[in-house]
Backbone:
């Protein structure tokens, strides 16, 4: 009997020792998988992954996967990138001066109030307030289906864009714009990258005109870049806070993502004296500035609060773009962006600079049947000049390569095709500049001229001096009578 019991006990020990670790005990990571072509669910199943979210406008999915299987997933031939689904944070926490600073009251007198323009506020949500109307919304936060604000940040941002002009409380830049609350951040002001991508995906699907992103991260993301590029290519204006990691001295390139991507308008902050906020990010990617120091707007529980940050500056730009779009309904997002930059008051060094970009944004207004620019000829004290709105034609650009992943030493052939967006006809003799950005920064620029069929080809021979990683190919198209056009593509070198 003892022998039998002993045998059973030993068998139990052996069984216990060799029992595999349960799935619940395995360490998992939350990642975003970007595919080269179509989403392949079998690839995820093969590495024991579980899909949380799929996106409509980019070939990517959010996945929970055992940590030990990530390396295997990266080696799959149909996978472009596997990146951590890290958290993104709001770009600022805690007037009237600000509204006047961007000339919004002059726009209202011209009947430009943002009416009919749809603005998606991707943030912590928007809470109920007597002085604000929310046209609709959605929540991508895992813990709630409500798009109501439980932080205060999103409500503050929304008030800057579109608080009602009803003689009570405050008034937003575009008081008649249609605001949509897209909750992608939680009560702490943080949110997963996958939720933000879902929010932008939703904004594209629901035909938003403007997307406001008052948050940022230091981390690059292939998936995030693809989705903001797609939104921009679909005609949406994407606005983002440049970030609050600027140095007091104003040195260094501190603009965060997604603001740093070309398809996004990066916004810095100034105070009531039009001086850069000491926290405001700086760098070549900074496009414009707006009020962002001690700005009064809505808060939770029907209250008001002063807050500072580039988070507050970005919605001033979104509101101003709503006014511009209402004033110029036939212009493309590229043309409206160009007007925004051209009408900005030049601050700091002459021309575009690292501290103020093109300068302080200004709202459009009507006088003698023309839109005025409030941009002075030389100084802030100068007289305003008229800006005649001449509608230029728009280009359509396709940049392509034979594949998306290359080995060291391979030759990369890059082809660009330029056509008229309206007529679809090729544009010959367009000046094309290809800029190549490696993981460590810009490598080179190559110039070419489009042939009679609108094509131009470029040759890039990679060497061992080229660092491994993701390369961004950006084409800039210039042609008389057309707006400057841009297109980007990402390839991988390993």
Residues:
């Amino acid at each position: 009997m003892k022998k039998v019991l002993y045998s059973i006990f030993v068998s139990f020990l052996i069984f216990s020792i060799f029992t595999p670790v349960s799935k619940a005990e395995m360490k998992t990571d939350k990642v975003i998988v970007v595919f080269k072509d179509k989403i392949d669910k079998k690839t995820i199943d093969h590495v024991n992954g579980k899909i949380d979210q799929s996106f409509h406008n980019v070939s990517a999915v959010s996945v929970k996967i055992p940590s030990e299987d990530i390396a295997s997933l990266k080696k799959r031939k149909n996978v472009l990138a596997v990146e951590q689904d890290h958290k993104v944070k709001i770009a600022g926490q805690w007037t009237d001066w600000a509204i006047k600073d961007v000339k919004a009251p002059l726009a209202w007198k011209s009947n430009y109030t943002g009416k009919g323009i749809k603005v998606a506020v991707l943030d912590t949500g928007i809470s109920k307030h007597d002085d604000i109307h929310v046209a609709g919304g959605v929540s991508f936060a895992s813990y709630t289906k409500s798009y109501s604000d439980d932080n205060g940040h999103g409500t503050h941002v929304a008030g800057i864009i579109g608080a009602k002009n009803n003689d009570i409380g405050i008034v937003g830049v575009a008081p008649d714009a249609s605001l949509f609350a897209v909750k992608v951040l939680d009560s702490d002001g943080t949110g997963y990258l996958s939720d933000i991508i879902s929010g932008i995906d939703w904004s594209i699907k629901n035909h938003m005109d403007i997307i406001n992103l008052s948050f940022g991260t230091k981390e690059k993301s292939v998936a995030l870049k693809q989705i903001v590029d797609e939104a921009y290519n679909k005609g949406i204006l994407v606005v983002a806070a440049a970030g609050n990691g600027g140095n007091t001295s104003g040195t260094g390139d501190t603009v965060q993502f997604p603001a740093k991507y070309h398809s996004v308008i990066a916004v810095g902050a100034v105070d009531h004296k039009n001086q850069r906020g000491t926290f405001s990010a700086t760098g070549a990617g900074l496009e414009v500035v707006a009020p962002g120091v001690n700005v009064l707007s809505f808060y939770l529980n029907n209250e008001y609060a002063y807050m500072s940050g580039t988070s507050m500056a970005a919605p001033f730009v979104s509101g101003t773009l709503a006014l511009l779009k209402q004033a110029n309904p036939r212009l493309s997002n590229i043309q409206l962006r160009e007007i925004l930059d051209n009408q900005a008051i030049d601050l700091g060094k002459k021309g575009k600079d690292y501290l103020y970009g093109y300068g302080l944004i200004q709202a459009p207004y009507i006088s003698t049947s023309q839109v005025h620019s409030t941009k002075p000829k030389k100084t802030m004290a100068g007289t305003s000049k008229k800006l005649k709105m001449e509608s230029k034609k728009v280009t359509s650009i396709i940049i392509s390569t034979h594949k998306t992943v290359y080995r060291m030493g391979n030759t990369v052939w890059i082809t660009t095709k330029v056509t008229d967006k309206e007529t679809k006809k090729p544009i010959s003799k367009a000046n094309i500049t290809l800029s190549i950005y490696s993981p460590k920064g810009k490598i080179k620029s190559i110039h070419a001229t489009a042939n009679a069929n609108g094509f131009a080809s470029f040759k890039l021979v990679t060497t061992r001096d080229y660092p491994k990683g993701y390369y961004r190919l950006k084409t800039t198209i210039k042609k008389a009578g057309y707006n400057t056009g841009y297109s980007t593509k990402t390839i991988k070198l390993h």
In short: The chain is about 20% helix and 30% strand.
